[in-house]
């Protein structure tokens, strides 16, 4: 297990830390906004293919709440939407 300054503060367990990646192809992704997202796979719509991501509130390994609805709304509000 590698510990970087403050990096483990938002991980509830070693399993989640090991599973989360910045790689967009991974199953669990840590977004630049700080949100941990679940990668649901690829979807094609209107001739374009994109990755379907969803937020998670609870750790899939230990069940600890890792992001509240308020955390998610705040992070999503900080991310620019496509208008």
Outline of the structure:
This protein has 83 residues and is α+β, with helices and mostly antiparallel strands.
Shape: globular
The SS-based structural class is: alpha+beta
User: What proportion of the residues is helical, as a percent range?
Assistant: 10-25%
Beta strand %: 25-35%
Compute the average pLDDT: 84
Q: Which series of helices and strands comes N to C?
A: HEEEEH
Radius of gyration: 14 Å
Which strand order do you get reading across the main beta sheet? Answer: 1-2-3-4
- pLDDT below 50 for ≥5 consecutive residues: which ranges? 1-8
How many beta strands in the DSSP annotation? Answer: 4
Summarize the biggest pleated sheet: 4 strands, mixed
- In DSSP terms (H or I, runs of 4 or more residues), the helix count works out at 2
What count of structural domains? Answer: 1
| End-to-end Cα distance | 41 Å
